[in-house]
Design goal:
The structure is a homodimer. Chain A is mostly helical. Chain A contains 6 helices and 2 strands. The first copy, chain A, has 2 domains: 56 residues, Orthogonal Bundle (Multidrug-efflux Transporter Regulator, Chain: A, Domain 2); 54 residues. Chain B binds a DNA duplex through helix 2.
Chain lengths: 151, 151
Amino acid sequence: MASTSLSTRSIGRLAALTGVKVPTIRFYEQIGIMPAPERTASDRRVYDDAALRRLSFVRHARDLGFDLDSIRSLLDLADEPERPCGEANAIADRHLAVVTGKIARLKALQAELSRMTAECAGGRVSACKVIEVLHDHDRCGADHGGTRSDF
Amino acid sequence: MASTSLSTRSIGRLAALTGVKVPTIRFYEQIGIMPAPERTASDRRVYDDAALRRLSFVRHARDLGFDLDSIRSLLDLADEPERPCGEANAIADRHLAVVTGKIARLKALQAELSRMTAECAGGRVSACKVIEVLHDHDRCGADHGGTRSDF
DNA sequence: CTTGATCCTCTAGTGGCTAGAGGATGCAGA
DNA sequence: TCTGCATCCTCTAGCCACTAGAGGATCAAG
């Protein structure tokens, strides 16, 4: 195991170290993702190394697109090394499926959008393929039937 | 020109025809995407064919991932067929670039996530690749440096 | 001592809806 | 005619993950 340094830092320093913005750190504290840290006499937050590790974890998970609820579960798991890791895998798998689905939908959109813009000759709106496709969905390739959900 | 039928319908019927939910139609009216329609004596909304066409347009544009601000611009353009369509094309092109960027980022995430889950042997959390990668970003393939933005 | 960076709390806004309260109206069957 | 349910109305609040700004205290450098 590496030596555990015992330094502390302000919220701004923590923000710089992790790439998480200062208001976001306070927000994470408010919603319980980060624990309330110690304070100086003048009420400033002081973060220890555990906080630094935890926030880095959160940041990396957010970078990978996990929502804060999943991150809460992953943090709980990370705190108990003896538990089996099936749950962590399940969370990651679920997220992977979501990501894969999004890619598929976005690719369909990409195809449709490039068809739209490629076919437009650049005349007047009355002859514009972009507007036309939007007006008359039958002229659109794919069937984006039900779920708009998110992108 | 095709014959313009002169039928009308309730908000529920309009919702069924377009696939846009009733509260969403009211919301679109509130924010000015849809104009305030005529009302019956008992204050119920009555939609004509122009409203039906406009809402279908909005729905298709949303399906393609355009945000409501872009849709506002596209609606303005669609209402003036004599204007040149360059602006419509520009909006679509900008959106296409956004979509293409999202696909690229999501593919990187997909690769990282599947690597994470594939390498996990299914033991305890202490040996879990998923948790490990999240803890130590250096073991992660890609560099998701700055922008988390949206997914 | 002054200046400017950083910190504090608090509220409100973003996008694009969705959910629910609390009530009025409309329409079909018994 | 009554009953009951579907649909409609307005209004407010909530969702996610932040972000922005007001209004003020404190700190560190020159």
